[in-house]
Each structure stands twice: as structure tokens, then as C-alpha cells.
Task: inverse folding
């Protein structure tokens, strides 16, 4: 019988100190003071899950705040491959300046910061992000087969994981709204040694949203 592994992707808490600027892979801080939001999120997540975070401070601090709010993982790991896309020299620049730079390079995109095939100066493309994230995700799928994983990460990696769901595309994934402290549920199965099947169950739900989740 093929075992299903459930990935509960959580986007980190809101970033502080970078209003109106692109931070990308910079190691910026976040606001974890909304106790009620963290308690609601902890209640939404599965019991007896493995907790995995990116190495960036905002993901690590979000995971720690979740634990303080009552989420109790069976084990915790950190993986730098789950970090956000690096925009290189554009990081720290105002969002409108980055948009102009992307347009000047002929790399504007209607859903994402820059065309997913384009590599910003000193940074990486979304396609490169996708490759490193999925290498990590496939390893997690095999290491923790049949278990639940809570992965505290970023908007880019969550979109990259979604685009591998059955019936999904790059454009559909890039068009998603992934709110801070929201959960995206993706199920994975290893069908053969070199093939996985992914199903996006739902995207971008907050613990405070109404309705049941399965």
C-alpha cells in the first residue's frame, strides 16, 4: 500500500522593518506578538508532526512561537534549502524600483516579482528556487514517509511546491495569495522509486478562518 505523507506548509509571521522593500533571502526579523493568531494556527496543525523550518530567522522564530502557542512536534529540523528566492542586488530596494529593474531587463511578470526564468543580478531565478526546494521536499517525502510534516517556510517555496500538484501549472502557482501565518496542505506519495504524486488539498488558510479542514 502506498503511504501518503502530508505537508502542512506555513508561511512565516509578518516581516518587520522592511515596509515597501523587497527582502527576498535577506535574514530579516518578523513579528510574533499575535498570540491569538499563533494559538489558532497551532490548533489547525496536526498532532505528532515533524517540524521543519528554513534557516532564515523569520521561519525559525515563527516555528518557536508556534511551539509556545501549544504546537508540540515530535522532532524539529532546519533546512537552508527551504529559504526564499534570492533577488541578489535587488534585495533591500523599494518594490517599485525592483519592478522597474525587472521591466528594463524585459523580465516583468504579472504574478511574480520577476519572470521565473530570469536570474536577477547576483541572485537566483524562481526556477532555481524550485529545483533546490523540490530536492529537499523529495528527500523529506522519503525520510518521513507516511508521516505529517509542518514546514515553516516562505511564499516562493510554497508556490514552488504547489506547482507540482496534479493539474497545477507554474502560472497558477505564482498567482496564489499566500498570507503570513497561513497553511497550505499538500499530500505526497512515492509511486515508484523515481516518481512522486502530489495533491494540493488547499492553499493559504489561516487558523482563524472558518470551516473545517481535513
Result:
Amino acid at each position: 500500500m502506498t503511504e501518503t505523507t502530508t505537508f502542512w506548509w506555513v508561511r512565516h509571521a509578518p516581516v518587520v522593518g522592511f515596509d515597501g522593500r523587497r527582502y527576498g533571502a535577506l535574514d530579516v526579523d518578523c513579528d510574533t506578538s499575535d498570540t491569538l493568531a499563533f494559538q489558532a494556527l497551532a490548533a489547525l496543525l496536526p498532532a505528532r508532526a515533524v517540524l521543519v523550518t528554513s534557516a532564515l530567522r523569520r521561519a525559525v522564530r515563527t516555528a518557536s512561537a508556534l511551539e509556545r502557542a501549544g504546537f508540540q512536534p515530535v522532532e524539529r529540523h532546519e533546512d537552508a534549502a527551504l529559504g526564499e528566492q534570492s533577488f541578489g542586488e535587488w534585495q533591500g530596494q523599494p518594490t517599485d524600483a525592483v519592478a522597474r529593474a525587472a521591466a528594463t531587463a524585459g523580465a516583468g511578470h504579472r504574478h511574480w516579482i520577476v519572470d521565473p526564468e530570469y536570474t536577477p543580478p547576483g541572485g537566483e531565478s524562481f526556477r532555481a528556487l524550485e529545483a533546490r526546494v523540490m530536492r529537499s521536499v523529495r528527500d523529506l517525502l522519503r525520510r518521513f514517509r507516511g508521516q505529517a510534516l509542518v514546514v515553516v517556510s516562505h511564499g516562493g517555496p510554497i508556490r514552488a511546491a504547489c506547482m507540482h500538484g496534479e493539474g497545477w501549472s507554474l502560472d497558477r502557482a505564482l498567482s496564489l495569495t499566500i498570507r503570513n501565518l497561513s497553511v497550505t496542505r499538500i499530500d505526497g506519495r512515492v509511486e515508484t522509486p523515481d516518481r512522486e504524486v502530489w495533491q494540493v488539498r488547499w492553499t493559504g488558510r489561516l487558523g482563524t478562518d472558518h470551516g473545517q479542514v481535513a
Remarks:
- The domain at 4-87+125-206 is CATH 3.40.50.1240 (Rossmann fold).
